[in-house]
Amino acid sequence: MLFQTLTFLTFFTIVFAIYWMLQRRWQNYFLLIASYVFYGWVEPWWLLLIALTSVVDFTSARFINKRPHQRNRFLLLSLITNISILATYKYFNFFSSSVTSLFNQFGFETDPFLLQVALPVGISFYTFQSASYVIDVYRGKVEARRKLPDYLLFVAFFPQLVAGPILRANDLLVQIEKPRTFDARIARSAVLLILWGLYKKLVIADNVALVANKIFALDTPSFPIVWAGAFAFGVQIYADFSAYTDIARGCSRLLGFELCQNFNHPYLADSPQAFWRRWHISLSTWFRDYVYFPLGGSHGSLLQQCRNLLITFLLSGLWHGAAWNFILWGAWHGALLVLWTLWNRAPASLRPEKIPWLLRVVLTFILIHVGWLMFREQSLSHLWAHLTQNPFTAPEADWRAALRFAFMAAFYALPLYLVHPLIDFWLHRKQADSTSQHYPGWKWTTVITAASALIYWGIIILRSPETADFIYFQF
Q1: Active centre residues (catalytic)
Q2: DSSP character string of 182-213
Q3: How many angstroms separate the CA atoms of 66 and 59, rounded?
Q4: CB neighbour list of residue 471: distance below 8 Å, 6 or more residues apart
Q5: In sequence order, what DSSP letters do the residues of 19-48 get, joined into one string?
Q6: pTM above 0.85, yes or no
Q7: Domain ranges of the chain
Q8: Which of 138, 189, 309, 312 is spaced 20 to 30 Å from 207 by Cα?
C-alpha cells in the first residue's frame, strides 16, 4: 500500500476517523489491527514473519529480566531468530548464487538453489527495530514490557513500518504506552509535513527519476552522461527517501505520535562523517550503537579504529541489499571515513579544517555521488566501465546533453534547498512542542495553511506522469 495512492488515502482516513473515536485503551488494539492490515495488504503471509519476530523478541526480553543468569541464552535466541529470518529471505539467494559462481570458476559446474519467494517489504527495518529493543533490555537501558499488544504495535506501527525511521523503545514504545489527545495545531503541521513529503516524491523524485532511469538504461553512456545520471540519482534518492520519512512523520503526528527526524540537509555536509550524521540518521545511529561501539569504536589503536569503521560500513552496505554493488558502496564509505580519520591526524596545517568550508562541501558532495554511482549501477562490469572512462573522449554533443540533464535535476532539486529550510523552521522550531507557551498563534496558522495550499497545487501542476515505489521499499 503506497503512501501516494488513493488506496492509502482511503485507508488512513478510515483509520484516523475511527481511532480518535475510541477510548485510549482501545486505540492501541485498533492501531495494531490497522498496521497488520496495512502490512499484509499485498502478501498476507508476511504477517507470519513479523509476528514471529515480535513474539520471539518480546519473550526473550521478558526472560532476560526474569532469569538474569541465563540472559546470554535469551539474547542469543533473539539474535539467531532475527538473523536467520533476515538471511533466509534477503540473503539466501545472493549467497547461493555467489557460492555457485565460485565453484563454477574452478570447474565444478552446478546450478544455484534459489528460494522462489518475494522479499518481504521492510524486513530489514522492523528486524533492526525489534532487535534493538532486546539488546537494550540486555544492557539494562530499557525495562522489558509486559503487554504483548503494545510491543506488537511497536514493531508493526504502519506509518514507519516499511522504510523507517528505525525507532528505539524509548522513542516509540513509550509513546504507545501513554495517553494521546488530538491537537488541531499539531494536525495542521502534520498535513503540511505530509504534503511536503508528497511534493518531494511526486514532483522532485519521480521527475528526476525519468532522467536517471533513461541514462542508466543506456548500454555505453559516455563520461559526462554517466555523471549527470549519478547526480540525478543523488537528487532522486534524497527526495524519495526523505519524502517517505516526512509522510510517515506527518501521519504519525495525526495519530498523536512524534517520530525522529531522519535527514538534516545531508548534501551540505563538509565531511563523510558529517554526511552520516545527516543522512538516514536512525540507521547511522543504529550501526553506531549496536555494531561500531561494540567492536570498540574509536578506542584502541588507529588500526583498530579503521578496522571498526570498515566492518561497520561493509555491514551497512550488505544491509542495503543482497548484491555486490551494495557491498562495494559500503566499502567505499568505510574507506572514506578511514581516509578522513587519517587526514584529521595530519599536522595541524594540513588538516581538513584548513580548507574553506564551501570546498569541503563540494568535495564531500562529489565523493558521495561516486558512491551513488556504485549504489545505482548493479552490473559490476558496467560500473567498472563507468569509473574508468576517459572524459576527453566524449563528444561535444554528449557534454551538452549532460548539462541539460544536470540542469533539469538541479531545477527540480531547488525546493530542497529553498523551501526545505522554511518547512524545517515552521515545523521543528515553531510547532514541535504543543505545550509550549510560545506556540504559534493565528499568524503561523495562516502561514502554514497558505504553504500547504501552495504545495498542494504544486503537486497537481508539476507532478511526474510516472510514479514508482519508494526506493527504500526494497530494503
Answers
A1: 320
A2: --HHHHHHHHHHHHHHHHIIIIIIHHHHHHHH
A3: 10
A4: 236, 237, 240, 241
A5: HTTS-HHHHHHHHHHHHHHHHTTT-TTHHH
A6: yes
A7: 6-177, 184-474
A8: 189
